[in-house]
Amino acid sequence: MEYSSSNVDSNQTEAHDKVGEVVHKHWRTQFQKPIAEHNQRAYQQAIAAINKPSIIFDSGCGNGNSTLKLAAQYPDSFIIGIDKSLSRLTKQADKANQSLNNPNFILIRADLIDFWRLAANDNIALLRHFILYPNPWPKKHHLKRRWHTSPLFKTIIALGGQLEIRSNWPIYIDEFSTALTTQRFTSQKILLEIHNNQWLSDFEKKYHKSQHSLWQLTADLTVDNRNNG
Questions:
Q1: Is the alpha carbon torsion for 139, 145, 148, 151 positive or negative?
Q2: Residues 118-164 pLDDT 10s
């Protein structure tokens, strides 16, 4: 099978110089958008299914293949794969949930904006949080649509845990690192190497097969890990 995926097309050649300013602005305000009822129901369904002592989010899980792989990789945790696309989730969710009697994961259709806030409001403390290949919104004027410069960045921080972002656009990784620095969190950026077809998501497979450079950012979002210097 041939794979052909274009590189990210952007009019930015480096991290946006307004990242810190936008993060600080959102940090001083309260996000007031009402939570949709269907997202509330989806959240309650996910919480009711938890059968392990620690929780991992696979945010924007697409068809859920990455969630299944994480469930196998972290058998002592409960993985919640969240995506807003019913068409991507349905087939994989039916297949996956029928294959095990007591799986340590669930695939949920919900908007991350609401799901994250509901979890943070319940003081959910994640063990790990994977955000794999988020929409980069690559045009310069799209800055405020990226997770690290949206009002939800504060919620990502509140959920805590070991954060892992993967992207085929290094500027996204650099900006996320800058955003974390504004809240005194350090992060690590590496060029991701894929060996023996060990990709986590279908997006990662596609980008790898298209010979894109893949980047990973990791950060410990526990409060005790803030840089107090």
A1: positive
A2: 999 999 999 999 999 999 999 999 999 999 999 999 999 999 999 99
Q: What is the DSSP string of 172-227?
A: HHHHHHHHHHHTT---EEEEE---TT--SSHHHHHHHHTT--EEEEEEE-SGGGS-
Residue with tokens 């990789």: 73
* Tokens encoding 117: 């806030």
What torsion do the CA atoms of 214, 156, 38, 67 make, to the nearest 10 degrees? 40
The mean per-residue pLDDT over the stretch 184-208 comes to 91
96: number of CA atoms within 13 Å, CB side? 23
β-sheet bridge partners, residue 79: 56, 105
User: Is the domain defined by 123-223 classed in CATH 3.40.50.150?
Assistant: yes
The helix/strand count (H/E) of the chain reads as: 8, 7
- Tell me the C-alpha distance between 105 and 81, whole Å: 7
CB 172 within 8 A of CB 136: yes
Domain assignments of the chain as residue spans, ordered by start: 59-110, 123-223
Cα gap 204→186, rounded to integer Å = 25
CA atoms within 13 A on the CB side of 66: 26
